[in-house]
Amino acid sequence: MFRLIVEKELRETIGTTKFAVTFAVCALLILLAFYVGGRNYQVGQAEYEAARAENLKQMEGLTEWSRIDHRVFLPPQPLAALVSGVSNDIGRTTEMRRQGELRSENSRFNEDPIFAVFRFLDLEFLFGIVLSLFAILFAYDAINGEKERGTLRLSFSNSVPRDKYILGKLVGAFLALAIPLLIPILIGCLILPLMGVPMESGTWLRLAMVILAGYLYLGVFLTLSIFVSALTENSASSFLMLLVIWIVAVLIVPRAAVLISGRAVEVPSIDKINFDKSKFQRQAWEEDQKKLMTWQEENQPAEGEDTQEWFGRFRKEMDALGEDRNDRIAEFSARLNEERRNREAVQQKVALGIARISPTSVFTLATTNLAGTSLSLKQRYQEEAARYQTQYAAFLTEKTGDSPSGIIIRIGEEEEEEPDPIDPYELPAFTYEGPSTDETTSRALPDLGLLALFNLLFFAGSFIAFLKYDVR
Amino acid sequence: MAMETTGIVTPESRPAMLEADKLTKRYEDGHLALDHVSFTVRAGEVFAMLGGNGAGKTTTINLFLNFIEPTEGEACVDGIATHRDPLAAKKKLAYVSENVMLYPNFTAMQNLDFFARLGGKSNYSKDDYRRVLLRVGLQEEAHNRRLKGFSKGMRQKCGIAIAILKDAPAILLDEPTSGLDPKAAYEFIGLLESLRAEGKAILMSTHDIFRAKEVADIVGIMNRGQLVMQRSKQDLEGEDLEKLYVEYMAGYMDEPAEV
Questions:
Q1: Which of B135, B167, B199 is where one domain is finished?
Q2: Complex confidence, ipTM
Q3: How far from A366 is each of A131, A216, A217, A451, CA to CA, in Å?
């Protein structure tokens, strides 16, 4: 009985013009998404390699390590080809300094704002927007449509258990949508390595989980559609109701969540933080200037004192003040940054908590976590850049012997030999280590579980509604 | 209004396949759709229910199909109360609705195959389907055409073919000739007679007084949820059923008529 209903659903769906058109559109879009993703990866990788090479090249010929202008770059993430997440919004280039705060700039969207307007056609967008709509289109009249057509009455004039019928309908509708979609997805998966996207075993596993998340997400809209169609009298009402739910879930809730959390938890802007930091820095500098002047007044060179010796003392005092000032500035900056980060974390927690009401947000969070393009990408890149900064500072200190403040005072004009040019390839290499497969999957699992729960809830709803459904 | 029951003599040897015993249905809004209706349809009998819109004909059929539950009394199929064991009861029932609607994207053969298997018959071959479709009068060139291009008469034939394939001992027909052209209606009556000859118990609701008189072994008239009259074919011989019907529907005959 169950198998018969599944077969009927498959045959009934697949045999329609609606299905043929939808499948053709979906197949085209999916293949396009894989191709565009692969192409974006190629472009991103080429830009990354070129930027790295350019960075080293511009150092060639320099003779002092203290004069180098070093940058590190975020490489493109393989699965960002399919789930771009925030990868195009965050700065990919970080100007390296021996100390102080690092700032990332040159995001993809910053460089090419046109992409920010329309965004990319990626797999996450396809599932999130297009396929969820198609799921509604296929299942909005699953129950009430059969009633309208009169086939429900005829079916239930037979000895048909309702539980098997509703389960068969759900599985049949799901397979009718899922199996044909799998074909372009599998072809797309073959395109990726052919286009040079590095696909290691962990990456394949994560991609498989992205697809699983997509199917769970489709399942949510299918079960929801069946649920609504078992609650409403006619298919026009269920379609309208589902359209409203879709708009709320896909378009309103994620944006509203951000707005609400923005109101609920205020986070000082970067400009405000920078202003406070500059103010503190200026004050600290002015204080030190006064201290230096006082020191100078109190420590005039003694009669017969060697000028070089006095300058030595002066420099020592200046360095000490400089070091102390830098420490205070760093401490102040760190405190402001930490406060901002903490508030930002609370804001994100509130936003994501509210957004998780919507399956679309849950799907986005699951897939971006799996692809390594979630909100944590920025934080991780900043952390790795900060770790590299320590390595870089140690390298420069070793090479130059300068103090961290970087202030070099030259006294007198000494005849020096022309120094040898530096070798930029001696610089320690910055490699961005993306999150491991274990890390990404464990982060995505709660959201995958939530998607499964949505499926279960809506199916239970359809089941209960159908048990009471008037089939006449 | 008391029911008139005259002249109904049915051989005891034939089992009662469809039985309504004080069948009553009152909806939640208080509307009394069916009021203590009792009748029996035995194997090899056709029971025609006549009545206007809202008389309770379709409610009676819905109760036999367990689409709704009785407020009082019971509807039994081969002794099984439908509200107690609907799945067992429905195994013994075939049903043809007033306006047969099948899956429009399936061919006639595919529709037959699905509904036959749904009715528990999975051993039919394509030839069996073809034979039944020919028996109900559907031309061979239509067998593999999708239903969406079918006329009402053609769909009705498919519906009857599905009922035949189920091979159930009892058949419920809800205004089966409504909307059929005279030729199709005539062919349908022939089919009904052959099903009766096979021993099927047939309960048919209809507006068609002429056909009812022609084919039914028992004719019942329903009005405002009550079965106000049931008479055997022999009883109705020489009677003007149309006149009787109009009189009953107008409520002229509160007492049993003289036969």
A1: B167
A2: 0.85
A3: 17, 11, 10, 9
